[in-house]
Amino acid sequence: LVVNGFINVVITTIERRFGLRSTQTGLVASGYDIASFLCLVPVSYFGGRLGASKPRWIGWGVAVMGLGAFVFALPHFLVGQYRATNSDQNVCTLGPLLANGTNGAAVEALTELTGCRHDTGLPLANGGQASTDSENLSWNVWFFFTAQLLLGAGASPLYTLGVTYIDENVSKKMSSVYLGIYYTMAVVGPAAGYVIGGQLLLFYTDMFVVDAGTLFHINHLPVSIPPGIITVPAGGGGTFLGGYLVKKLHLSCSGIIKFCLFATIFAALFTVCFFLSCPNLTFAGVTAPYFPHENLDSRAYAHTTEPRDLYYLPKNLDNACNDRCACSRRNYEPICGADGIMYYSPCHAGCSEEINLENAKVYRDCTCINATFHGETAGPLYGGGSYDAVNTMCQSQCDHLWIFVVLCFLVMFFTFLATMPALSATLRCVHDDQRSFALGIQWIKVRVLGTIPAPMIFGRLIDETCILWQESSCDDHGACLVYDNAFMSKYMLLLALIGKACSILFFFGAWFYYIPPKVITNGDTHPKPDATNQKLTSNGHVNPITVEKY
């Protein structure tokens, strides 16, 4: 609920609030797995020894996780109350100053110096002082990283000692079913965290966030709801069904491995979901030039779904239409113009008048917005008046979201379908007294090959797709504001295919090289005996020393 639910759904909000890059938040996410990697061997070895109390180890782990959750919340109380801007308006107000002879280039240079807290005597476009948003808060990343270390250390007994504790206290026949329920709850928890976290993000505690949801141009509520909707039936259902099928079909160890292989192949086929993305919204100075332009003379250009060349130069945010405004890039306040174009802020759109309505802010007299659309009706949602722009993202006509949801559901279903069978195969390949240690070693490999490097790799690649950075200081960038959706989609598809290809390769190798153990009787080896004649231990498990773990 906390680690894989709440934290994941708010990670981009934290990224924006504290001016962190995706690479840094990737390091935070890896902290959980780094601590688990360091603690798995001692916890699984000492906690799995004869006479050790597994429930006591699990209890101490949960207490450490509680401490980690407390540390994760500390930055919220240490940095003070968050304010999006220092003034009520962020509109163009410097026309008279330029009329007296100050040119646009000088205003831009002086504005940047003002943002760096040098005294220039020139007021900012929003009429306030230098923005406190430029304050460097990235040092809080170490609080988040430490909290993740504590959470990872505390969780290390859950999937090693917890699994073997269940397996030791139920019959062999029902073991896969109970473990399926256990892992299903491990899926339902994060799903609930996504849904609840999405609801909590509706409360105003942070500014607008650009995250992976920009691939489909949707806000926090629908971005957090689909993962929750997908995870419960796909992840939870796949996990439980996988454990049930092992019991129902009476699969041998070799059969279980083949089951995992085919499930992973089907999951790989549906990774084409990452090929889907929506074209970037038309963003003046970022994905499209300012008006007037020969290719930007109608609403059709703004609303087209065809891919367009992107404009990467940050200076494109400044144009002749807003040259008199001395706009600061410290305050990111995107608005949607009546021409269907998004602008970095009302100031960058050249708007000189702001009107506060009950549920929105609207703007008039915007010099950068195509005059053809000036004074268009904003509709009943915004009071039905005539305005040039509204403080919201422009609507996208792309409808790929639900296709993506369906394909992502299938990817998750077949991925989790192999989870319980793979665990059952692991438990059947080792002696009873080595199961906790074997699971610990297995989880170490999972951390080293997957969950530790993956967030940092994903974070790095996501940063590579950024086409507009937030300015957090004079010589540094903060969080990403706008991503190149096409490149992000390609990177996600490439990484997903690489991961699934490796899984298929290793499952095939495990099946191909698997050799059933032989039964030793009076010094002679014999093939696997009939399962009905095998002598079972008190808890229903076959003695691993004398018969095959089938």
Describe the 3D structure:
- This protein has 550 residues and is an alpha+beta fold.
- The protein has three domains: 337 residues, MFS general substrate transporter like domains (Growth Hormone, Chain: A), CATH 1.20.1250; 151 residues, no CATH class; 33 residues, no CATH class.
- It is 50% helix and 7% strand.
- It has 16 helices and nine strands.
- The strands form three sheets. Strands 2-1-5-4-3 form a five-stranded antiparallel sheet, with no helix packed on it. A two-stranded antiparallel sheet has the order 6-7. Strands 8-9 form a two-stranded antiparallel ribbon.
- A hairpin with a 2-residue loop joins β6 and β7.
Put the structure in a nutshell.
The protein is an alpha+beta fold and 550 residues long.
Question: Which descriptors would you attach to this protein?
Answer:
single chain; 550 residues; alpha+beta; Growth Hormone, Chain: A; 3 domains; two-stranded antiparallel sheet; 16 helices; 9 strands; 50% helix; elongated
List the helices and strands and how they pair.
Layout: H1 2-17, H2 22-47, H3 54-78, H4 95-99, H5 104-115, H6 141-155, H7 161-168, H8 172-200, H9 220-249, H10 253-269, H11 299-303, E1 335-337, E2 342-343, E3 351-356, E4 361-366, E5 389-390, H12 401-417, H13 419-428, H14 435-451, H15 453-464, E6 466-473, E7 476-483, H16 485-513, E8 519-521, E9 524-526
Antiparallel strand pairs: 1-2, 1-5, 3-4, 4-5, 6-7, 8-9
Helix pairs in contact: 1-2, 1-8, 2-6, 2-14, 2-15, 3-6, 8-9, 9-12, 9-13, 10-12, 10-13, 10-16
